[in-house]
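Fill-in record for DNA repair protein RecN.
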Amino acid sequence: MLHRLIVQNYAIIENLEIDFSGNLNVITGETGAGKSILLGALSLILGERADPGVLFDKNNKCVIEGIFKVKKSQVQHFFDQYELDMEDQLIIRREISAAGKSRAFVNDTPVNLSQLNELSRLLVDLHQQFDTLDLGRSDFQREVVDALAGQPEVLQQYAQLFSKYTSLQKELKDLAAQRDNANKEYDYNKFLLDELEEAAFTENELETLDTELKALSHAEEIKNSLSKVYYQLKEDEQPVLQVLKQMQSSLQALSGFHKEIPAIAERLQSSYVELQDIAGEVERINDQLQYDGKRMEALNERLALGYRLFKKHAVTSTNELIAIHKALSEKLENVLNLDERINWLENEGKQLQAQLQQKAEAISKQRKAQLPAFEQKVNALLGQVGMPNARLKVEMTVVPLNTFGLDHIEFLFDANKSNHFAPIRKVASGGELSRLMLCIKSLVARSVALPTLIFDEIDTGISGEAARQVGVIMKELAGGIQVICITHQPQIAGKADAHYFVYKTEMGGKVTTSVRLLEQEERINKIAQMLGGEKPTAAALENAREMVLN
């Protein structure tokens, strides 16, 4: 509920503060006193766009603040979604600078207008005389019927199931597109894979073959060098190994005469062993290395194949080719698996669709069951509020399965018992729509919790008993939720739990709007003035007293 509204420097309001009751709040005042300006200020904290021209004092900023008392469950999702701090009371503030810049805050945290508008829908339902868009929306009409049907859990289960179904259908569509694209590339990828499989390269193969080819290409040069090395080590007139052996023996004989000689002799022995091992390796390599023209030809062909595939796939190593081979293999296998996945999804989709159809039909049955009583109650209320010839009829037609079932709900209206029903948005006048909305919301309020309801001159065009009945309906409605109503009708004002009077004052050459909460005797006097003029008669005062006290 809206607990307090604070307005500073807006239009003809210099400074104003109102504390509202939690039930029926009525605002009255002379035409032009500023009642609609008050609602204009409230609209700003509900997300309406700001006009810098509304500043009372062009040199100062405008500040409008609304303090709400809310149940956490009512707004918890919004606060979680935008990571805002939740407190015991909710404060919405809107500021308009003298330069025309507008800012909005929720509990002192800056928010944008779309966020503010989203939050406001959870807090306030502002219904002005010609603001009847909601009533003409098919979504709103369906929500009304669902509220009366009282099956929120079933609707939630259906919505979750439908969300799962739409996600499945999206995946199915994406996979089908993948399959189509994959089929276009399948033959080419299969050719590339077959080419790599036929080549059957092993890890680091081309690099190893390249090394071998280089060795074969220089076989004669290598063998000559190896032979020369081996000859000098072991077969020369004075072989290196023999000379080393002799040197080591000479030193060994002297090892008892000098303490450092044994170490040198040992090092010569180590060198001898190492060179002897080298000679053996040289001999082995020399024996193994043979010029082989056929092997060289085979190596050249294998390497040529490899280098051609390097160029085709823009790589430089055997292992990269092997990785491409693996990726192509997986890609082709995935193509084959797509059909299996698509078939599974199609079967799953058929099962989900059958479940949705069954649940949607059950929801439709429950909706249809509410329509006769709903039409009867609304039409009875329309008679009470001065529209005895008006009739509402609800039309339900079958549409493809969607988030809300398989029903399209349309409210049809006949204002004159002509039996020519047409959609509300096409035939009902502003006043008719306002009273019809009141009747519908009064019924819905008994089934679901509504936010604060605000009605701006909903009673235009009615008086007498019809106005009294509007007051009765509002009073009943305010038993469960907060209602704020701007009215010119004394019959409605008499039903208020809190009566606020809007008036103009002049100070320092400036006209400003003020508001005050009326005490009981003040209420009686103001309602008497609404009945009988500026100087009410005793009968008007008595009539007003009866309206207030009964």
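KEY FINDING: The chain has a mean pLDDT of 85.
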